[in-house]
Design a protein that fits this description.
Shape of chain B: globular
Largest sheet of chain B: none
Strand content of chain A: under 5%
Structural class of chain A: mainly alpha
Largest interface: A-B, 130 and 129 residues
Number of helices of chain A: 8
Number of strands of chain A: 0
Shape of chain A: globular
Oligomer: heterodimer
Chain lengths: ~180, ~180
């Protein structure tokens, strides 16, 4: 029998997997098109995703219902890790979530990429004790947020991003689609 | 059946849907995240074959990294629902390459790139403490400071890699028709 935790996880993971396919982010052509600045549909989808998430999480936080998990702002590993993820992202058109979704949609290249990902994780396990502590010494600001680090309340940040993003999305909106 | 060059959902509906999924995830348990489970898959195996190594490893000895939990079942749900949804909307199709890889691009080259890219991107995701879900989307959702260097690194190097490895825009009826 599945536990309550497992059912919850399957459910949330399930709606995310379905949404990745419906939003077509589980499509290497869309991702590569976005990185080549050619696919404005996917680019706008990602922007709308981020802005909606900010508002949703802000509302939950204000209501005291948010289960947050802030990643530590260790600037060196986060920058280098982001750059490596970007390289792989541009090489393949997959990221971990969409790679799994694409492999599940019949894409053999995604399945090969997922195998690469598993080996990449294994390499990280072996290498990380030697590199991560040194990399995390400098410019480590801990589990902080933009509102805490720079001041101003979260709703001001969210209002600013949503206002600015909304204006850009509105004035660059496509004629159709 | 869905036409291949027309989006299933308009961009705003697609983004809204994903944003609501993030909100749901934060309401019930924790922000979206996928890449930790690639470590857990290795950790669970290593715990069987090399328990001493796992015990001596600062990260791996934590149950979070060697025992399947919420995140594991989250990824199983993601895989299963992606397969079912792709079937339902007519997007399930066995294939080994994509339009951007080029009409003349060899399957072998696509496979090699997919493998190396997967290796590099997961290593990077774990170094950064999260991937496009756990760092980028969840980071912006929570306005974390870490999301700023992560996003810059990801898009700058993503654009460079895509420019070098996928220089040719696919022809009409292919990826180019995605352009609005």
């Amino acid at each position: 029998m599945l536990s309550e935790m497992q059912i919850l996880a399957l459910g949330v993971g399930g709606v995310f997997g379905a949404a990745l396919v419906l939003a077509e982010l589980a499509d290497p052509d869309r991702i590569i098109g976005t990185l080549r600045l050619k696919d404005f549909h996917a680019m706008r989808t990602i922007a709308m995703f981020v802005l909606t998430s900010m508002v949703g999480v802000l509302v939950l936080s204000e209501a005291g219902m948010a289960n947050l998990s802030i990643k530590p702002a260790v600037m060196i590993p986060v920058s280098i890790g982001g750059a490596l993820l970007g390289l792989g992202f541009g090489m393949t058109g997959f990221c971990p979530g969409t790679g799994l979704a694409c492999a599940a949609s019949g894409r053999l290249d995604a399945l090969v990429s997922v195998i690469g990902m598993l080996l990449g994780a294994l390499a990280f396990i072996f290498v990380s004790p030697k590199i991560l502590p040194q990399m995390s010494e400098m410019w480590n600001y801990g589990e902080t947020t933009l509102p805490k680090f720079f001041g101003y309340a979260p709703y001001i940040w969210v209002g600013g991003f949503v206002g600015l993003g909304g204006l850009v999305l509105f004035f660059t909106r496509p004629r159709r689609g | 059946m869905h036409k291949s060059n027309e989006p299933i959902l308009p961009w705003w509906a697609a983004g809204l849907l994903l944003g609501l999924v993030m909100t749901l995830a934060v309401a019930v348990k924790k922000p979206l995240g996928v890449s930790t489970q690639f470590v857990v898959a290795n950790g669970a195996v290593l715990k069987q074959v090399a328990p001493d190594y796992v015990e001596s490893h600062d990260m791996l000895k934590k149950p979070k990294y060697n025992t399947p939990g919420y995140g594991w079942w989250f990824d199983i749900g993601l895989i299963a629902a992606a397969a079912v949804t792709a079937l339902l909307v007519g997007k399930w199709k066995p294939r080994a390459t994509c339009d951007w890889a080029g009409a003349n691009g060899s399957i072998r080259k696509r496979m090699i790139l997919s493998f190396i890219g997967g290796f590099v991107l997961l290593f990077g995701a774990r170094l950064a403490g999260g991937c496009t879900s756990g760092q980028f989307a969840s980071g912006w959702a929570q306005l974390s400071l870490s999301v700023v260097p992560f996003t810059i690194g990801m898009f700058v190097f993503g654009m460079i890699a895509a420019r070098i490895l996928h220089p040719k825009t696919p022809g009409a009826g292919k990826g180019a028709s995605y352009v609005e």
